Amino acid sequence: MIVPNGSRVLETARLILRPFKESDGDDMFKNWASDPEVTKYVTWEPHTDPKNTCALCKMWEEESKDPKSFRWTIVPKELGEAMGSIDIVGLHEEICRGEIGYCSGRSGWGKGYMTEAFRAVMEYLFNECGFESIYGRYDVRNPASGRVMEKCGMKYLGEEPFTDKRTGEKGTVGCRLITREEWEALK
Ligand SMILES: CC(C)(COP(=O)(O)OP(=O)(O)OC[C@H]1O[C@@H](n2cnc3c(N)ncnc32)[C@H](O)[C@@H]1OP(=O)(O)O)[C@@H](O)C(=O)NCCC(=O)NCCS
Question: How far is the CA of 64 from the centre of ligand 1 (A)?
Answer without folding.
Answer: 27
